[in-house]
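ARCHIVE CARD
CATEGORY: sequence design from structure
SOURCE FIELD: tokenized fold
FIELD CONTENT:
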């Protein structure tokens, strides 16, 4: 069973910036065509409100160095929810470039909720062969995050945007290089109508996995690392389907842990442990710091 909690307004009011970021995308039709369970899920997700940003501590504004972004696509070893940081509280100082990824859900044959994932081409110069969600940086013509995510999904795996009902956006995530990534939740009305056609220049394989997997401690391992003076855990999920084996980790795993927590209304069965973000002294092409 999957469901989304309805929170009291006093607990979910965010800053103007985050409210603007979280406006549900309008790419999809307002009427949902699919199973009754997915229709109920879509209705609940449309009512989802993101948590407000956390209050900053005294040292969170300390300036630190940030490495340069190594790739244009939305994939990173590290990625954290923006609401647990203080960087978004000063929009005049912190204006990262924007991207969106599509969490495309559908109901599996046994009634489980599944998410579509991709394996990046092994011919790519950066992050080759790694698992990611369809998505990429926003373009000037995109009217909202939903359009960014569905446009990228069509370009990468041939997913027709008309097959996807975009129902909500989760809170932004920040990549290691401070690219603001918006997870867009969409529901695939008719799985049979989708025939993956991977763009060979970007995608090597398209597969799906059970969303609830990202709340379980099974087939999961973690490593403790340090970044900007803070220790954190990076999670790896080992997944096998047919004769193929995949490792889902980093930013992709972090986003899916959050999506599963929202939909199933329970925390993961393991400690996430994220570091605190700090304002960087040096920035890259994804961030404007006037």
């Amino acid at each position: 069973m999957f469901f989304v909690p309805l929170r009291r307004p006093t607990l979910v009011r965010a800053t103007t910036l985050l409210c603007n970021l979280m406006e549900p995308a309008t790419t999809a039709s307002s009427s949902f065509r699919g199973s009754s369970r997915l229709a109920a899920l879509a209705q609940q997700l449309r009512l989802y409100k993101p948590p407000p940003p956390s209050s900053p501590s005294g040292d969170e504004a300390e300036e630190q160095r940030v490495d340069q972004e190594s790739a244009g696509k939305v994939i990173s070893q590290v990625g954290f929810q923006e609401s647990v940081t203080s960087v978004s509280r000063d929009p005049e100082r912190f204006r990262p470039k924007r991207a969106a990824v599509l969490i495309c859900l559908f109901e599996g044959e046994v009634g489980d909720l599944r998410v579509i994932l991709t394996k990046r081409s092994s011919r790519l110069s950066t992050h080759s062969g790694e698992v990611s969600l369809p998505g990429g940086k926003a373009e000037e013509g995109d009217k909202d995050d939903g359009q960014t995510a569905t446009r990228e999904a069509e370009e990468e795996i041939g997913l027709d945007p008309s097959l996807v009902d975009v129902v909500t956006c989760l809170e932004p995530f920040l990549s290691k290089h401070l690219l603001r990534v918006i997870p867009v939740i969409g529901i695939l009305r008719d799985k049979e109508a989708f025939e993956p056609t991977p763009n060979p220049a970007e995608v090597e394989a398209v597969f799906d996995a059970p969303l609830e997997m990202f709340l379980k401690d099974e087939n999961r391992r973690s490593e403790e690392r340090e970044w900007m003076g803070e220790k954190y855990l990076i999670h790896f999920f080992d997944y096998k389907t047919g004769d193929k084996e995949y490792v889902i980790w980093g930013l992709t795993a972090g986003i899916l842990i959050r999506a599963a927590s929202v939909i199933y209304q329970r925390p993961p069965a393991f400690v996430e442990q994220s570091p605190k973000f700090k304002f960087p002294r040096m920035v890259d092409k994804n961030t404007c710091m006037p």
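CARD ANNOTATION: The first strand starts at residue 79 and ends at 81. The CA atoms of residues 63 and 281 lie 5 Å apart.
SHELF: design records, drawer C
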